[in-house]
Input
Amino acid sequence: MATISPDLERFVQQEVSSGRFEDRDAVIAHALALLRRDRSETVAGIEAGLEDVAAGRVQPLHVAFDELRRELGVHERA
Output
């Protein structure tokens, strides 16, 4: 059995005690499934970005940052 930090072990036990999971293994299996999904989504996003670059669907970085600032309501630092 893998050793995890005491903090994570407490979290796992809380999840089991709450009734959300049957046992420790179920918590860990769920966490690993989420990690696998996140990694797959990350790789797919990177691949899509590389395809955009190859197809010329790009913009200057300062334009992208300006758009993000507008969308997020963040002002540029002086």
